[in-house]
Design a protein that fits this description.
6 helices, 64% helix, disordered N terminus, disordered C terminus
Length: 125
C-alpha cells in the first residue's frame, strides 16, 4: 500500500513538472516571437511555415507545444532548442541573452493579440 502511495505521488510530481515545462515553453515561444519583432502570432507562424491556428493555440496554452514547433522555431531563428524546451539561457548567444533581458525588463509588451506584463520568471533562473 505504501508503494502505491509513493508511486502515485511520484506520478503526480512528474505530471506537475511536465505541466511547468509546457507553460514555460509557451512563454519562451512568445518571448522569441517578440524578440524578433513579430507583434502577431499569425505573422510569426507564417514566417516560420507553421500552421497558424495550431501555433496560436500552442502559444495561448490551449494545446501543448508540439516538438515540431520547437524544432522549427529553433532552426528558423537559430535559437537553442534547450532554451525553448528547458529554459537554459546559457545555451543562447550573447546577443540573444541581451535581447531577452531587454524584453523582460520592460514595463510590458504590447502585441496584436493582447497586452501583458513581461515574463518575470524563466525556468532555471
Amino acid at each position: 500500500m505504501a508503494f502505491y502511495a509513493q508511486s502515485a505521488k511520484t506520478t503526480q510530481m512528474i505530471g506537475e513538472t511536465a505541466n511547468d515545462l509546457v507553460a514555460t515553453a509557451q512563454e519562451r515561444l512568445r518571448n522569441v516571437r517578440l524578440m524578433h519583432g513579430f507583434k502577431s502570432r499569425r505573422a510569426f507562424a507564417e514566417h516560420c511555415g507553421l500552421n497558424e491556428a495550431n501555433y496560436y493555440k500552442e502559444e495561448a496554452g490551449k494545446i501543448a507545444v508540439q516538438p515540431a514547433t520547437l524544432i522549427t522555431v529553433s532552426r528558423v531563428f537559430k535559437i537553442s532548442a534547450d532554451y525553448l524546451l528547458l529554459g537554459d539561457e546559457g545555451s543562447l548567444t550573447v546577443n540573444q541573452q541581451k535581447s531577452l533581458r531587454d524584453l523582460l525588463s520592460g514595463d510590458g509588451v504590447k502585441d496584436d493579440d493582447h497586452v501583458t506584463s513581461p515574463v518575470s520568471r524563466i525556468a532555471g533562473s
